[in-house]
Every structure is written in C-alpha cells, then in structure tokens.
Request: fold
Amino acid sequence: MTENDLEKIIAIFEEGSMAKAAQKLFITQPALSKSLAKVEKELGEVLFIRSNNGLIPTYAGKYFVEKAYQIMKLYEDVRVEFCELNHMRKGTLKLGSAERIGALLLPELLKKFSARYPNIQIDIVEENSHTLEEKLLMGAIDLAIICLPLRNANISYKVFYRGPIYLGIPKDSPLNDRSYTKTGEKMKYMDLQDVLQEKFILTKPIKKTRMAADRILKKAGQKYTVSIESRNIETTMRLVAGGMGISLIPDIYTRCYDTGNEISYYRLEEKYDPYWKWAVIYNGDIEHLTRPSRELYNIICQEGCKFPTYLCT
Reply:
C-alpha cells in the first residue's frame, strides 16, 4: 500500500462519490475503482458501501481513513521539517476555519503569512466548528479558527479575540425608551431584566452565536421566549430590522451587515458577561507543530483580532 493509495481512499471518503473523487484526482473512474479494490483485497475488508446518497464508509472504512489522515500528515510533516533546512521553500499547511470567521480574518492573515513564506501552500478547509474539531483530531488539518466553546476537551486552543455582544431592538420599538446612559460612555445601555419578557429572534441552538446568546440570557436568571430561529445571523438581524422581535448580536456582525439603521444597538452590563471568544485550535503542544503551523499560529495570535479597515470605521 502506497501514499498514492491512501490519497485515493481519502478522496473517496471526502467526496462520497467515485466520479467526484476521480475528477478531483485527475484520473479515470475505472482506475480509481481498481485502486480501491486493490486496497480492500489487501486489507480483507470492504471500506465503502453504495447508497442513494453515494458511497458510505463502513466501520472499517472510517477506521482506515482516520489512520490514513494520520499517515499522510506524517508524510507531510517529514517533508516540511526537512524543508526547514531549506528555509521553508515548499510545503503545505491545512488551515480550518468556520466560514464567517474565515471571510473576515483570512484575507489579511494569509496575506501577511504569504508575504513571509511565499512558497508555503495554504489549503483552506471551511466547515462548521464541530467538523473542524473532528478533522483536527484526525490529523486532516493542522490548525483551525473557531468560536468557543469547544466540544472536545482534549483540543488545545488560544483565545485571540474577545468581542462584545449587543442587544438589538427595532428602531421604532417603545423598548428603546428603557435605555440609559453611563458617564463617559458613548453607547447607551439596556438591562436584560427589562426585556426578558419580549420575543427573541436567535440563531439555531447548534450555532455559536446562539450558544453565546443563551449563556448571556441565562445569567439574567429568568425564562425567555425564542419566537424565531434561523441558521443565519444576517437573517436574524434582518428580521429584527423588520420589527419581528429583538436579538443578541455580536458587534462584528453589526458592522458586516447593513440594516439601514433599522436596529438600535445597546451595550449590556458586565454582570451578564456579554462577550464571545474566537480561538485558534491545535492538537497537542505548540512545540510539536510544524514550523509553518507555528508561524501561522503566531500571526493569528498577534494579528487575528485586526479586522479589515472597512469594518473599523
């Protein structure tokens, strides 16, 4: 069994289709099928079964792919470590990112990294946070940028951004009259106790924005009603702008999505811990990461909380 065989099995697993995997590898489907049959014969196990949804890995298939990721990472680590003797003139770094975070942070971060190490290829893997944690533990990616909390306690992480979460209220709502000011503060405040009886519009429970919102609301110590749930924070904001309810919205998204001044935003008291955190996650110890991974890790920790200039006005 060769490195090429492992690469083909991983492609089948990731694509869930012989045709798509063959296209990804730039080989014919019959050639890929032949390679799969050879590996299965060598192992004495069936790795994939056909279904209406494509190729599904068997228990043996999942185990094999997990080990294949680890072996492929060892191959890459050896290549990169030897490349350090040659001033990092080639190599590949696999970086995971939650989609919305990646869109905000990666352009500037990777621009800086590529300026220093122009010959290191960056492979970006955009998935939800839970999938990224699994891929990290499998060895399919080197680092990832996600929102806390983590599902797996065995993953190491470093928080690089702690951002405020605001209460968003439709601009014409009488609730706005309950706001108040603090000396030396430009932004007005609203106490959660004064709005808990209102209808909240929040993202789905699996979303990190929802987890942060639930944590904040529970600190108020009373029950609250969620009238509408959405998978998309932008949709949530536009529903608030349409007067459908109120919401808890991270500061960065108030700058990303224009709602035409239809939402009034308010700060919350510190006792509610109205913040959420972004972190760079990795497996094991920093010292055990490849040099490109360590360099990108340092850049993320130093520069990760710097957003594009168009969001900083």
The two ends are 56 Å apart (CA to CA). Residues 87-155+283-313 form a domain with the D-Maltodextrin-Binding Protein; domain 2 fold (CATH 3.40.190.10). The chain has a mean pLDDT of 89. The first helix runs from residue 3 to 15.
